Amino acid sequence: MINMNSVNTKYKSSRVKRKKLLSLTEDWIFKHVFCNPFNLEILKFLLQAIHPQLVIKKIVLFPNEETVNFEDQKANRYDARGLINDHLMFNVEMQRSGSKALQGIRIAFYASRLFSSQPIRGVDFSKLKPIWVLMIADFPFFDDPDQYFEDYSFVGSRNAKSLTEYIQLSIIEIDRAERLAKKPTEQLTALERWVVVLKYAGDPSKRAWIRKIMELDEGC
Fold this sequence. Notes:
Layout: H1 4-18, H2 27-34, H3 41-50, E1 59-61, E2 80-84, E3 88-95, H4 100-116, E4 131-137, E5 149-155, E6 162-173, H5 190-200, H6 207-216
Parallel strand pairs: 3-4, 4-6
Antiparallel strand pairs: 1-2, 2-3, 5-6
């Protein structure tokens, strides 16, 4: 026999849960939007805005980086992982909480895991693909509250020369995106527009701001 009181309680609970505002800062929402195999243009626009000098012609997601459809569907270790132009391996991760120290450890872990996952037996090391790991931090990361982005690589402490360009790490902080409201929308850079969209897409109070950005930027 079905306990209808129990069913009704679960149904009401699920209805209440569905009323929660969805945000791109939730990893499953981020993955659903940016890992849609039928439309990788939005992921391409995001990555292109971060590094406009990188001409992205093709993006391929690695196996099992499919979209997710609900909050409890935790099937994958990565948020978005794939290959750019058949050459550059990338991983994009959304983090809603943490600290600068913890984020540093996390991004180093993802980078080393992505790099070492490549087959090397019988392969010249020069044949390894370079990697790019991007972390989107929805918490204060930079000491300067007006800083939103930074690239990291292996460089010498004395001569600042690059040891290798095979490992590139990037951090985008979106937690303090509200500060960008003091800047005219049309003067926002492509990356700054994405900072606002990543932080506030789905926020009714920022709907007019988001709409204006969308009118200026096809990618967003």
